[in-house]
Design goal:
The chain is of the alpha+beta class. Helices cover 15% and strands 36% of the residues. It has 4 helices and 15 strands. A hairpin with a 5-residue loop joins strand 8 and strand 9.
């Protein structure tokens, strides 16, 4: 993620705090924003793996979760790294770090945190291109955090504008585009994401993701994407749901509708063991022959959300 490297330069705004500190930000600021560990998708990983026999659906599930973990983590790590330091200035209930950056960075950055009367916090990380300051500061990340329920029980959301990230720093982010909206509930161990972007050829792509973790470490994720997944330029709707136990064994079900399939739909299911090896597979289009035993599945039934 090239934008990760460039946005980390925003931490350089802390250097401006020296000598011009008015007051410390309230300690609740850093506690209100969740850590990357708290907002993390936890998919079991084992030691006994045979690469050639790994479940394809397990690999897909792990790839999606790793990507989304990274996408959420860098935002939270960035914000946390800044708010640990004294603010540059304070205006009423608004605490500001910056603006500033390193000498060679293509953009200047500023973080504004608003302490609301109800105990919640709003924050905005903004960026302004040094090559054209007339653009002004653009909102790159906007977030809301509600820690009032107590330690590790907070809720909130944040929005990442990759279009603005590109405008603020097109050098490090030449292809950044689209938007990601994240919401979380620490008490229920829920994480949701909505993604909107354009493919390289200009085709719109949207996706949504929901993840829920149980106290015992088992999990349930559903991933939907509306995009061209093959064939003509028509857009298909792809839904994948993966469920797994704390032991690591699980099941993935996938459905493709619309686009080149017309009124038809393709549905496939695969199960994996505690060592993530495929134990069962079937699909309704005979893409591959049915193999294994359904009784080996941690979840006996296919359970996909209704098609749109």
């Amino acid at each position: 993620m090239t934008y990760f490297k460039s946005l980390l330069a925003a931490a350089a705004v802390s250097t401006l705090a020296v000598g011009c500190i008015k007051t410390d930000a309230p300690s609740e600021v850093s506690r209100a924003i969740p850590t990357s560990d708290q907002v993390q998708i936890k998919l079991p990983a084992g030691q006994n793996r045979s690469v050639g026999q790994l479940s394809d659906y397990y690999v897909t599930t792990r790839s999606v979760t790793a990507t989304l973990n990274g996408g959420s983590a860098w935002v939270l790590v960035l914000i946390h790294s800044i708010v640990q330091l004294p603010p540059t200035s304070v205006t009423g209930n608004i605490y500001t770090w910056g603006p500033g950056s390193s000498a060679l960075d293509p953009a200047d950055y500023r973080l504004d945190v608003t302490a609301n009367a109800d105990g919640t916090f709003d924050y905005v990380l903004s960026g302004q291109p040094k090559t054209d300051p007339s653009v002004g500061f653009l909102m790159l990340i906007t977030g809301h955090a509600d820690p009032t329920a107590g330690e590790d029980l907070g809720t909130g959301n944040f929005d990442i504008s990759f279009d603005n990230i590109h405008t603020a720093d097109p050098i490090d982010n030449p292809t950044a585009q689209g938007e990601v909206v994240v919401d979380y509930n620490l008490a229920t161990h829920h994480l949701g994401l909505s993604l909107a972007a354009l493919a390289i050829d200009g085709t719109p792509e949207t996706a949504s993701y929901a993840y829920d973790e149980s106290p015992d470490g088992s999990g349930d994720m559903t991933f939907d994407i509306h995009a061209n997944v093959g064939g003509t330029a028509a857009l298909e709707e792809v839904t994948m749901r993966s469920r797994w136990l704390a032991t690591g064994e699980g099941r993935g079900d996938a459905r493709i509708t619309g686009g080149d399939l017309g009124s038809d739909q393709a549905i496939a299911s695969e199960c994996w063991s505690t060592t993530f090896l495929e134990t069962y597979y079937t699909d309704n289009q005979n893409f591959q022959p049915t193999m294994g035993d359904l009784s080996s599945c941690a979840f006996a039934d296919q359970d996909l959300p209704p098609a749109n």
